[in-house]
Amino acid sequence: MERVISHSRPTLGQAEADAAADAVLSGHVACGDRTAGFERAVADAVGVAAAAATSSGTAALYAALRALGVGPDDEVIVPSFVCTALLHAVWAAGAEPVVCDVGPDLNLSPDAARAGLTGRTAAIILPHIFGTPAPVEEFAALGPPVVEDCAQAIGAEAGGAKCGSFGAVSTFSFYATKMMTTGEGGMFASNRADLVGRARDLIEYDKKSDAARRFNLKFNDVAAAIGLVQIARLGDFIRRRREIAAAYDLELSGLPGITLARAAGSVYYRYAVEVDDADALISGLRSRGIAAARPVDPPLHRVAGTAACPNAERAWARAVSLPIYPSLADADVRHVAAAVRAVMS
């Protein structure tokens, strides 16, 4: 059977296996000291005061909105060209998503966000799409608190500071295909102790004396043990992703009919090119044993049934994410690039 080059995959090794085994053999696998250590490590890496680990990135977004006081009758601005986790977090908080278009860099458009503001806008969720930093301060100037969604951008920097340190709150995802992984899991982070405290209160329902709505959204020490190894490797992961992106740039530069994924400051969670026919490129690569995909499918304005977002619609029709992950070999990178050239010709 022909080997398939995966679209994405986690980078795990013996160190992660040993750390997980140590946690299991310790007899303490629930949320405990290892989780607290992982929270501290992420907060230090991002440059914020504190963090609270959650069961997923979606849970972290939900906790962020609730901690900010978002609820029924509120609106939350979200970009269209991103995964549906944002919609589910907003709906879970009881609020209404206002889906806005993206700009040329595929991050949320400041002009579209400004046009989406109403007297009910309670927050703006701002992803750093595909690991490319968005201008957080420009959105913060609009008024509502900004939730930095760093699910694809842990380790990215803008203006000498880490993504995740600009907004009122930041959230992270450690799903299997993210920049670093704990299998599942997420994180809520902030420089405001009151918001971190509210988040911690929301993700555990036991031994509470009031009737506020809470869920069990906690983390666990086995995942945290893996996370502590992964975050120590994050710098190497980012360097490798940038090497692969640079190789794609070199191999595909000048190819007619393709726009490359060059993005200042990106950590290249995705390397998304744009072509006239995304389906044709995806199927052509698949026939050559290479898994490529639309990086977002479908855009949120389609899911939510809101007004069309032309830039997001165009990106959905044209964008193709090529394989990029730290364990991808140089020979495989060249093979992918050669296959893209063959399909495009």
Q: Based on helices, strands and strand pairing, what is the structural class?
A: alpha/beta
The tally of beta strands, per DSSP, is: 12
Give the N-terminus to C-terminus distance in angstroms.
27 Å
Low-pLDDT residue intervals, each spanning 5 or more residues: none
Mean of all residue-level pLDDT scores? 96
The total count of helices amounts to 12
Q: How much helix is in the residues?
A: 40-55%
Shape: globular
CATH architecture of the largest domain: 3-Layer(aba) Sandwich
State the domain count: 2
CATH class of the largest domain: Alpha Beta
Give me the Rg, rounded.
Answer: 20 Å
Task: Sketch the topology as an H/E string, one letter per element.
Answer: HHEHEHEHEHEEEEEHHEEHHHEH
State the CATH superfamily name of the largest domain.
Type I PLP-dependent aspartate aminotransferase-like (Major domain)
**Lateral arrangement of strands in the main beta sheet:** 1-9-8-5-4-2-3
Structure description:
This protein has 345 residues and is α/β, with parallel strands linked by helices. The protein has two domains: 14-229, Aspartate Aminotransferase, domain 2, CATH 3.40.640; 235-344, Aspartate Aminotransferase, domain 1, CATH 3.90.1150. The protein is built from twelve helices and twelve strands. It has helices spanning 14-26, 33-46, 57-67, 85-92, 110-116, 136-140, 193-202, 221-252, 278-286, 300-304, 310-318, 330-344; strands spanning 50-54, 75-79, 96-100, 121-127, 146-149, 157-158, 161-162, 169-173, 186-190, 258-259, 271-275, 319-322. It has a seven-stranded mixed β-sheet with strand order 1-9-8-5-4-2-3, with helices on both faces. The chain has a three-stranded antiparallel β-sheet with strand order 10-11-12.
